[in-house]
Design a protein that fits this description.
Blueprint: H1 3-8, H2 12-19, E1 22-28, H3 37-51, E2 54-60, H4 75-86, E3 89-95, H5 103-110, E4 119-127, H6 132-144, E5 147-149, E6 155-157, E7 162-163, E8 167-168, H7 174-193
Parallel strand pairs: 1-2, 1-3, 3-4, 4-5, 4-6
Antiparallel strand pairs: 7-8
The protein binds flavin mononucleotide.
């Protein structure tokens, strides 16, 4: 325990909590048959895992039985909330549908509340214009859910980062941005953990 920590009385338990690796979920935002989001999510995870600074996992909303919010009670809603509660931060893999996020992602966002609060998130988006319009819509939603979205935002083009808009072949230049985004997600996730 450092001198200042001794002075201000940080307990060993608090110290351990601060040093624990964070759990960051890489959330796949689409459930469409034939979707490309798993390729993008695996790419983000492969970059993230090399950093060894947090526990990264793919969280696929397609694996949760999430009915349209308010239409039914399912075990999937509870499981979704439990998964989110385990996480300290998020990376949203966002695809643009009619200039916004996908309906399944909006529904997944609406299907939890407290489990999102006071956590941080980064966005990796794709589309004809890098998914920028969808990502900006997501930022507004995250504000309401008290998720702090970081500045750096890798944008992938359906034309230059995919072959035939189906095979993901990302340009090298995105690597730096993904790491910068992850730096910011980790810093803010760690900070926000102290107020939960
Ligand atoms: C209904 C629909 C609407 C779409 N609208 C847009 C759009 O507004 N802007 C855009 O850049 N791409 C648009 N796209 C293309 C998707 O971004 C592209 O198909 C992408 O691969 C979808 O992500 P996914 O494969 O992970 O589901 C649209 C695709 C669909 C099926």
């Amino acid at each position: 325990m450092g001198f200042l920590d001794k002075l201000f009385g940080k307990t060993p338990e608090e110290e351990n909590t601060m040093n624990e690796k964070l759990n960051i979920g890489i959330i796949l935002g689409s459930t469409r048959e034939g979707r490309v989001s798993p390729q993008v999510g695996e790419w983000v995870k492969s970059i993230a895992d090399q950093r060894e600074d947090a526990n990264y996992e793919i969280v696929d909303i397609a694996n949760y039985d999430l009915p349209f919010m308010g239409t039914a009670e399912t075990a999937g809603i509870a499981a979704w909330n439990e998964k989110l509660a385990e996480l300290d931060g998020f990376v949203f893999v966002v695809q643009e549908y009619n200039h916004s996020i996908s309906a399944p992602l909006k529904n997944a966002l609406d299907s939890a509340r407290e489990a999102w609060n006071n956590k941080a998130a980064g966005i990796v988006s794709y589309g004809s214009t890098g998914g920028a319009r969808a990502a900006e819509h997501l930022r507004g939603i995250l504000g309401e859910l008290m998720v702090a979205d970081v500045r750096t935002h890798p944008t992938l083009s359906l034309f230059t980062d995919f072959e035939n808009m189906a095979q993901f072949k990302p340009l090298e230049i995105h690597l730096e941005n993904v790491n910068m985004m992850l730096d910011q997600v980790n810093t803010w996730s760690k900070a926000l953990k102290t107020i939960r």
